[in-house]
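Section 5: illustrative case.
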């Protein structure tokens, strides 16, 4: 599958997809020391997002998501990129501030709902700075 999303925070990234249709609050839901999703009620609970392309429709909660994602960038435990279904200001703000403070932004791409629905955990994803997304459509494995 090849599609183009809207780059909210442009950048290049690649990695294995980690996909959920459920939003996630990073406050109490993401461990910035390990990159583990620790919200035990979330479908991705126990998964490690470090270096992966995290695909969530949007974040849940408040600006604390920004603080936790920023800390994960500092600690080297952030996802390689984030794909959403719309503009998520909390993810975007964390990425912009991480770029200023640490010289490392997390690309954030908005994808339309139909293409987002085709993403599966384990697929290999490559993101270009233009927002082009290449997804390997082989059998997905976790």
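Designed sequence:
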């Amino acid at each position: 599958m090849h599609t183009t999303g809207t780059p909210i925070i442009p950048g290049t990234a690649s990695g294995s997809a980690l996909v959920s249709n459920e939003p996630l609050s990073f406050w109490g839901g993401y461990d910035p020391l390990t990159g583990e999703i620790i919200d035990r009620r979330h479908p991705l609970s126990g998964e490690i997002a470090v270096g992966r392309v995290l695909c969530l429709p949007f974040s849940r909660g408040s600006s604390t998501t920004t603080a936790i994602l920023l800390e994960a960038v500092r600690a080297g435990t952030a996802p390689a990129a984030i794909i959403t279904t719309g503009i998520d200001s909390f993810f975007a703000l964390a990425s912009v501030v991480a770029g200023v403070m640490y010289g490392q932004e997390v690309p954030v791409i908005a994808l339309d709902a139909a293409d987002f629905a085709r993403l599966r955990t384990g697929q290999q994803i490559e993101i270009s700075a233009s927002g082009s997304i290449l997804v390997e459509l082989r059998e997905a494995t976790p």
